[in-house]
Predict the structure.
Amino acid sequence: MRIEGKTSLSELRTDPITGHQVLIAEDRAGRPNDFASPESASGDQAECPFCAGHESLTPEPLLETAGASGQWQVRVVPNKFPAVSLGQQEFAQPTISTLGMLPQSPDGAHEVFIESPRHIQDITELSIAELTLVLQAYRERLRFWSTDERIHHATIFKNVGVAAGASLEHIHSQLLALPEIPPVMATELQHSQRYFEENKTCVFCQLLEEELTHRERLVVDADSFVAFCAYAGRQPYETWILPRKHSASFEHLSDADMEPLAEILRQVVERLQAQLSPLSYNLILHTAPFHKRHADAYHWHFELVPRSTTSAGFEWGTGMFINPLAPERAAARLVVSG
Amino acid sequence: MRIEGKTSLSELRTDPITGHQVLIAEDRAGRPNDFASPESASGDQAECPFCAGHESLTPEPLLETAGASGQWQVRVVPNKFPAVSLGQQEFAQPTISTLGMLPQSPDGAHEVFIESPRHIQDITELSIAELTLVLQAYRERLRFWSTDERIHHATIFKNVGVAAGASLEHIHSQLLALPEIPPVMATELQHSQRYFEENKTCVFCQLLEEELTHRERLVVDADSFVAFCAYAGRQPYETWILPRKHSASFEHLSDADMEPLAEILRQVVERLQAQLSPLSYNLILHTAPFHKRHADAYHWHFELVPRSTTSAGFEWGTGMFINPLAPERAAARLVVSG
């Protein structure tokens, strides 16, 4: 194929040698960016598509939650510049290749959770009641996709700060629903499934027990949830939050657990803010694939990855990470700042 | 273990669930940084440890190449803040775990190639003769490690610019020699070995043939080397440079090939500079493990990854990449700017 004259290309490609899965998504180059020059947090609220009063700048909502004032408090909309989407998609006729270089259609759904009508940036600016509404919206959208046979997995993630890849500063998260299980989840499932077969128990439950016994990486030990610094954290202060009780799927979380989850999440972010300023981070919800698979072996959790170091040739070349702060030392500092 | 009071921790950890390999390297937190505040390229040559006249600021050289003037032109030294090192290492007594969370000693070698006595930043500021000396130094250090039975693989990489994770701006590369094959190389070897078994030919040779036939991603087509945009490039303008003739190991490169390699490398970087300003990139040398393994199936090459987008929750959560520029469009632009 020749690219000249073609409008935006949209394909999913898998490299035959490296195995990299790459979404070629030229449409996304046109999306708005508060941080067009790396260090300028513009925060131009007059143009923010997520602020109250600017609803016409986003597609029709998939979900709207009413807040205390009667105005919407959480608003879920399709991503206007989606990385993936459902339905017939045109893509370029592939070049004949014996290497299996056959681009796939980038199927899936890409949604945005606008987590407040106010132009704020982080969850510590939400009340516990407001953050609870956000978590309920996560659950509702996961429940929605869990019944769609075309979709096998969904990831919810949040980018806070330029260093974490945020393009808009107004508080929001994203949901990515995919017809295949993405590589990170496939690896976790493989390891947890193998552990389950060998030990007849969930590897995360075992990890929780060990972290609660040794306590050297423990950050918050609450009634229903536990937060600890990850044993092999990829960045300083990488923190995981798990439910104490075994549960593979976030969409099965009970109403009663919603507020305690909001509380521990807020507490962890507050403690991180006390150590890292400004705090940039990615928050990622890891939950089991849909359609009742892996229910015994997997355990949903949040991975919160503060972004203070830049990946370099070392990481790109080896696939390994360098973390200049021991997770035990990070946890000790987070406990003190609690 | 309790971390309080312990001095710098240095361990290699593998997460039992995610499989992440992480070097906990607290010593590295103290290394010098030209870019302590993200956007300030200080360029304070008075303090640069790599400039001529400051040789006492680095360890004793492992290799010194004389330049035209009789002064050293390329100087290879042990990294003063190594991510890995050989020899008996103390590390904390691990917590008892049933999860195989047993930290390993971070064995290996970490070297720095100081590529000019002058305080310059990119290879386009080197003459072809000077860049040839750099490539010869790569080959010499790889030959050195290829005879060490403790070492199974070495990666050479270069970080140019803050966005690519550089901490010092003075032109340099790094070599990381490891007792195990790192994850990125393990995946490439697995795919190329399987292709070889099924097809009795090298997957990279086949890829070269296809790229040279279709030409849609071709950037430079020289006598001994070929450069093309990667089919599943992870970042806009990701470019690979391969020798035409099958060869698994960079250390077997002939003297006659050194200057042509310097030429194509410089040409590719010049073309990238014409498209991206400022150009930040990682250059990574992928070469086969030592001790004559994978000689038929693997094919050494450079991967040059310009860094213009920041990884975000999408990449950390899924392990997939989003590239907003089709590799075919990138190649068309690089050809025009040639």
Summary: The radius of gyration of chain A is 20 Å. Chain A touches chain B through 92 residues (CB under 8 Å). The mean pLDDT of chain A is 91. Helices of chain A lie at 128-146, 183-199, 203-214, 255-275, 313-318, 327-336.
